[in-house]
């Protein structure tokens, strides 16, 4: 372990005090990280950064911790800060990995290639090459997607969307099953299927589906979203763990932004929901009755009744079916 410097000024009792510096804090953080005590690791490494803010290694290591807990946005913020102050080449691969987890494959491709261009024999060169191969296969699969199949898929997706938005879960199930059968690469359909099962009373089956998917892919955003909702509605405190993970994710896709905001609202995390709804594109959201319903509830619960009323009235104009509900002020939770 690296030791901190000693103060040359002696105290009255001739004891030389120990003053920890960045390397000491960093070492403690790495030890905690290896033991998977991520909260403790974050605290120690943050102290190392405070002690020696110009040391890029500390921020890189903190970004690795954030990646491990699924906080990809925060991880890339740190990596961007490092790259702005100098060229620490490993940052390019670390950023590529985070972008891949966020589903931003073109950004992942760019940063992985930059890493290989600058450090072809680096520690992450094999990982970067494998990532590029994966992205290439995804690109080729997308290019080979037949137009007639794409038309059929769009029709099925729109039909399923309509039924789910209107909470017609029994009707939605066979449509979603058809998507899963004929378009198995559409993984989102599995999460829609789990929702439909949950709301038709097959709650344990729905939760098992998402738990199994999360075991295979621990950073699956949609599994965390569904489980947060499922656990909350079954009064299982385990939902809080998933809310904490989701709160560290800031996706670029509008559909994912909207889904996160809605899950926060439906689990009574209204302050978090309000912040996320502020960043949702209206053009993407206005076709959803659920957007107006839950954003109005969020506004009302966060002390904005006039905004809640405006949202509710606009929602009624666009989606008359909302008139069957009582409005945001009637929600008990």
UniProtKB/TrEMBL annotation:
Instruction: Give the matching SUPFAM superfamilies.
Output: TPR-like (SSF48452)
| InterPro entries on file | TPR-like_helical_dom_sf, TPR_rpt
Cross-referenced PROSITE patterns, in alphabetical order?
A: TPR (PS50005)
The TPR repeats are found at 22-55
> Does this entry carry the keyword Repeat?
no
Query: Is RNA-binding tagged as a keyword?
Result: no
Q: Sorted alphabetically, which keywords does the UniProt record give?
A: TPR repeat
Which protein is depicted?
Tetratricopeptide repeat protein
| Species for this entry | Oceanobacillus locisalsi
């Amino acid at each position: 372990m690296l030791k901190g410097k000693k103060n040359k000024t002696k105290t009255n009792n001739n004891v030389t005090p120990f003053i920890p510096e960045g390397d000491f804090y960093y070492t403690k953080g790495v030890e905690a990280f290896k033991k998977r005590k991520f909260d403790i690791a974050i605290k120690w490494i943050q102290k190392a950064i405070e002690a020696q803010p110009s040391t890029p290694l500390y921020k890189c290591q903190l970004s690795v911790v954030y990646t491990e807990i699924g906080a990809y946005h925060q991880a890339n913020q740190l990596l961007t800060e490092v790259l702005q102050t100098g060229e620490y080449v490993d940052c390019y691969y670390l950023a590529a990995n985070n972008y891949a987890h966020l589903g931003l494959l073109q950004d992942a491709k760019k940063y992985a290639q930059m890493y290989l261009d600058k450090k072809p024999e680096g520690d992450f060169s094999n990982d970067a090459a494998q990532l590029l191969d994966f992205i290439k296969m995804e690109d080729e699969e997308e290019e080979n997607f037949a137009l007639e199949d794409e038309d059929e898929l769009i029709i099925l997706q729109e039909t399923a969307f309509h039924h789910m938005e209107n909470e017609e879960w029994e009707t939605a199930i066979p449509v979603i099953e058809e998507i899963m059968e004929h378009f198995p690469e559409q993984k989102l359909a599995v999460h829609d299927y789990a929702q439909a099962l949950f709301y038709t009373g097959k709650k344990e089956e729905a939760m098992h589906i998402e738990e199994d998917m999360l075991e295979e892919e621990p950073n699956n955003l949609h599994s965390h979203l569904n489980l947060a909702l499922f656990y909350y509605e079954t009064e299982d405190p385990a939902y809080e763990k998933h809310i904490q993970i989701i709160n560290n994710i800031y996706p670029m896709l509008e559909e994912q932004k909207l889904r996160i905001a809605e899950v926060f609202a439906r689990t009574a995390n209204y302050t978090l929901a309000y912040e996320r709804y502020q960043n949702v594109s209206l053009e993407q959201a206005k076709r959803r009755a659920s957007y107006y319903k839950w954003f109005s509830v969020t506004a009302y619960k966060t002390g904005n009744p006039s905004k809640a009323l405006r949202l509710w009235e606009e929602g009624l104009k666009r989606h008359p079916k909302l008139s069957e509900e009582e409005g945001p002020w009637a929600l008990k939770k």
